[in-house]
Amino acid sequence: MNKRGFLLALLFAALVSKTVIAEDSYVVVPVNLSLVPAFSLGRPAGQNTVDIVQLNIVAGYADMLRGAALGVISIIGKDAVGLQAGVANWTSGNLIGIQAGVVNTVFGTANGVQAGVLNYARSTSLSQAGVVNVSRNARGVQLGVINVATENEGIPIGLISIVRKNGQTHAQAWYDELGLMNIALIHGTKTVYNIYTAGVDSQLEDLTVGLGLGVHIPVGKVFFNTEAIFGAVSPVDAIAVEYENLFRARAYLGYKFSSFALIGGVSFNYLSNKNDTSITLEPVHGYEFGFSSDDRRFWPGIFVGVQF
């Protein structure tokens, strides 16, 4: 946006703000330059204020935001509409817009995006992207290392995704075409989940571990799952010293009984063979796709198991 467009946008925001909040006796502040809330240029003392542009050298405060708050610390006492960008962003009321910083906090309903290291929203329908994302009611995308939600109707993507209510947690065990006995933990929302896997062959020579993302589609007692699992395989006597990458894409059906479900399906598998390891895994059927090579092996698979 050019300077003219930016100034017009600020003027429009100011006019809209005056129209919307005049009846509540709020004072519109076009530009609030703040060292700390007690020392600021543009913010009248003892008045309820709405900031259009908030520039924070250390920390700034406004009762409402209808524009952009930029700087180190931004504190909005009630609602914010627009952008908060800084080290720490705090909105006590509702947010419509974007929070971008190291720590982002919304205590009301949040509609928009939070991007930072730590994101917290008490009630949200937004997307969160950070190292740790926490929300009471998540309805968008949570993208991070750790995602936590009391309830989640959206899509959590991370190493650990915890849903305290109305989610799903299952344990699985299955046997596959590599002769591996596998176990797994599934944890996530009703439809999207993380899966953590481990497996070992019958001779206890090779060990596999994996982390993946899955989609769950239930239809009565029957359900359909698809998963993408990224992992590694190592010789048992050289764990993490010798290893190869292992990718598995699975699609399978399950049938639920009272306390468990039977599962079975097919898989597409890729195993790198670049590190000259002593790994001995081979598909029992002996078939590999024609595009396989000495250092890239691809084959179809099949598996059966149980889910608890």
Brief overview:
This protein is mainly beta and 308 residues long. The chain contains one helix and 19 strands. It folds into two domains: 163 residues, no CATH class; 139 residues, Porin, CATH 2.40.160.
Question: Can you put this structure into words, describing what you see?
Answer:
The N and C termini lie far apart (55 Å). Helix content is 6%, strand content 67%. The strands form two sheets. Strands 1, 2, 3, 4, 5, 6, 7, 8, 9, 10 and 11 form an eleven-stranded mixed β-sheet that branches. An eight-stranded antiparallel β-barrel has the order 12-13-14-15-16-17-18-19. The radius of gyration is 26 Å and the shape is elongated. Residues 5-23 have low confidence and may be disordered. 37% of the residues are buried. The protein folds into two domains: 3-165, no CATH class; 169-307, Porin (Beta Barrel). It has one helix spanning 3-21, and strands at residues 27-36, 39-41, 49-62, 64-76, 80-91, 95-115, 118-124, 127-138, 141-152, 155-157, 160-165, 168-176, 180-188, 192-201, 206-219, 222-235, 244-256, 261-272, 296-307.
Task: Describe the global form.
Answer: elongated
**Protein structure class:** mainly beta
Sketch the major β-sheet.
11 strands, mixed
Q: Give, in order, the helices and strands.
A: HEEEEEEEEEEEEEEEEEEE
Overall helicity: under 10%
Average pLDDT score: 87
How many β-strands, per DSSP? 19
Strand content is: over 45%
Q: In terms of per-residue confidence, which ranges show pLDDT below 50 for 5 or more consecutive residues?
A: 5-23
Q: Into how many domains do the coordinates divide?
A: 2
Number of discrete helical segments:
1
